[in-house]
Amino acid sequence: MRPTNTLAAAASMLAAGASAQNYLGFNSGATLADRSAKFKADFKAEFTTAQNLEGAPGNFNAVRLYTNIQAYAQDDTPIEAFEAAIETNTSLLLGVWASGTDNIDREIAALKRAVSTFGTKFTDRVIGISIGSEDLYRISVTGLKNDPKGLGASPDVLVSFINDFKKAFSGTALGKVPVGHVDTWDSWTNGTNKAVIDALDWVGVDEYPYYENGKGNDIGNAGVLFDKAFDATVAAVGGKPVWVTETGWPYVGENWDKAVPSVSNAQKYWQEVGCRKLFNKVPTFWYNLRDSNPDNTMKFAITKNLSTKPMFDLTCPTTFDTPSASASSTSTATAGSSSATGVSAPSSTSTGTTTTGTGTDSGTGTTSGSTGTTGTTTSSATNPAKTAGAELSKTFSAGLALLAGAGVVVALL
Ligand SMILES: *[C@@H]1O[C@H](CO)[C@@H](O)[C@H](O)[C@H]1NC(C)=O
Ligand SMILES: *[C@@H]1O[C@H](CO)[C@@H](O)[C@H](O)[C@H]1NC(C)=O
Ligand SMILES: *[C@@H]1O[C@H](CO)[C@@H](O)[C@H](O)[C@H]1NC(C)=O
């Protein structure tokens, strides 16, 4: 909006980019499309495909998980993704499930068990940990509108979990791993959540322009909408590194306002958001390699059946259709003139707008989910899975692994 804001946003965006290695990976829930548990072989197949995708514009050798607990386990058995990661040399962004619970003891216990079982083969591969996933979204105005029964966690609860985690691993190998939290972009711009930002080493943002109804969310505008939300997040988090923890466009499913799912639109989104803005520039966990939620009509997978031949050509073009959002950041270094650029650049104008207006019209909010469960659920606003997930979470709220497992189904669409 104002040049000073633009420049500050641009500067912290550069800082964000520079302060973390630019990991590339996908998201991976604890369960398969039939709601059964994933085991080591399932994770290994995913990780192997991710690293061998034809035409990939980088090495997709990282993965984001939603829980440390193996699905079906009644105790603190570590998720078998850890062994699969060790055997495929995959970097791990760990997740601690934080909604619908008053403690993270089982998550911590599972992680400690993994550390004592696998040692540095495990800990050396852990690049980050997220305490929670979209918990703030689920208790936001939009989140509750989409799912009044959605289980989330308040900012003070998240902060206490973050502190619990740090205390549990202080002085150990995992004590050096940067701690973050993943949420929708308009959760980060909501000032009431600031204490969470202050408690973190990095911030994870989930962004789905597809679901930004009422904002001109056709594929041709997706890059612009993405940039607005990303820039608003960067501007809100005071220089903390921003990782993009979920983003993608469905290849099949219902239209969402002006957004149309198709393979060619999924490819366009890959190019205009992934290639132009994210890959090898910002730590990125794409949504997604495979679909796992049978209830969701929208499918986001980039491959069928874990084939290494994707549904569309993954190679990156050299020119893009999205107006240059990064003009303001690249010109930051040249001070004076850059402010003018910043003001006129589409994304910088909207940064201000979104920052002030987010809560009410947030598209990403609509996207997510609700299930009181893990992950994004991008689709759940109209999705029967939303309700199913909420019911599941209630039913199994005593069993965190099951809760997380049920959530992941919804999350993975
Ligand atoms: C394992 O992955 C890490 C991080 O990508 C890399 O630095 C290392 O060289 C890899 N090791 C092997 C044996 O491939
Ligand atoms: C802002 O965050 C608070 C705390 O998480 C939440 O209660 C509130 O509903 C949020 N505001 C909006 C507009 O969603
Ligand atoms: C998917 O892969 C599995 C295992 O390789 C195979 O049994 C199945 O036939 C494949 N399904 C399709 C639709 O290609």
Automatic annotation (TrEMBL):
Q: Which GO terms describe its cellular component?
A: cell surface; extracellular region; fungal-type cell wall
**Gene Ontology molecular functions:** glucan endo-1,3-beta-D-glucosidase activity
For this UniProt record, the keywords arranged alphabetically read as follows: Cell wall, Hydrolase, Secreted, Signal
Q: Where is this region: Disordered?
A: 322-385
Biased composition, class Low complexity, residue ranges: 322-382
The answer to whether UniProt assigns keyword Cell membrane to this entry is: no
Q: Which Pfam families match?
A: Glyco_hydro_17
Subcellular location per UniProt equals: Secreted, Cell wall
Top-level taxon: Eukaryota
Signal peptide extent: 1-20
GO biological process terms held by the UniProt record:
carbohydrate metabolic process; cell wall organization
InterPro entries on file: Beta-glucan_modifiers, GH, Glyco_hydro_17
Family statement: Belongs to the glycosyl hydrolase 17 family.
Protein name, as recorded:
Glycoside hydrolase superfamily
Q: Which organism is it from?
A: Podospora appendiculata
Q: What is the lineage of its organism?
A: Eukaryota, Fungi, Dikarya, Ascomycota, Pezizomycotina
